[in-house]
């Protein structure tokens, strides 16, 4: 009996022969050309995470409901748990890693998420960032309602969404209050009681 390695693109079948159901793919991921051999049923999220070590897209529900695996696929947001890796052949995929500069400098959206405390556990953050990027680049008017409508496909169980909505609106240049406790504090003067 052969033990199957489920993390490998090539699965062994009884008798020791290799699965012949492999397809060569070439995908531009975060600006880099990536190649691989994937089975017909391998999901894009698994190829990105397991083969390319792209940790932005998270595996949450595996049903396309939670949005943790959201990427941009040829310029449009998509749930990577609902896309077969072979479907991505010849396309461009952007994960949350594509948002910051090569030196790690945060882009304006990421910076607003930080400033407005728009994350807690962080599991949904990559998907939220990709959805928000898509909204901000769409040309649609940014209002509280349009942001909430865009985020309907992304579930966050920690934040209550308020700070996420504020961060996205702040990125669009709107004047929104910082969350309680994050307002600019008066500088401490020597000799004052703390």
Question: Would you kindly provide a written description of the structure presented here, covering whatever features stand out?
Answer:
The structure is a single chain. The protein has 194 residues and is of the alpha+beta class. It has five helices and five strands. It has helices at residues 44-51, 108-115, 125-138, 144-150, 162-171; strands spanning 22-29, 32-39, 70-73, 76-79, 92-94. The protein has a five-stranded mixed sheet, with helices on both faces. Strand 1 and strand 2 form a beta hairpin. Helix 2 (108-115) packs across helix 5. The longest helix is centred in the last third of the chain and has 14 residues, at 125-138. The protein is elongated and about 55 Å long. The chain starts with 21 loop residues before the first strand and ends in a 23-residue tail after the last helix.
Properties at a glance:
alpha+beta, 5-stranded mixed β-sheet, 5 strands, 194 residues, disordered N terminus
State which percent range the strand residues make up.
Answer: 5-15%
What is the overall pLDDT average?
86
User: In sequence order, what are the helices and strands, one letter per element?
Assistant: EEHEEEHHHH
Number of helices: 5
Shape: elongated
The helix-and-strand class reads: alpha+beta
Largest beta-sheet characterization: 5 strands, mixed
Strand order of the largest sheet: 2-1-5-3-4
Low-pLDDT parts are: 1-17
What gap, in angstroms, lies between the N and C termini? Answer: 70 Å
Radius of gyration (Å) = 20 Å
The helix content is 10-25%
Strand tally = 5
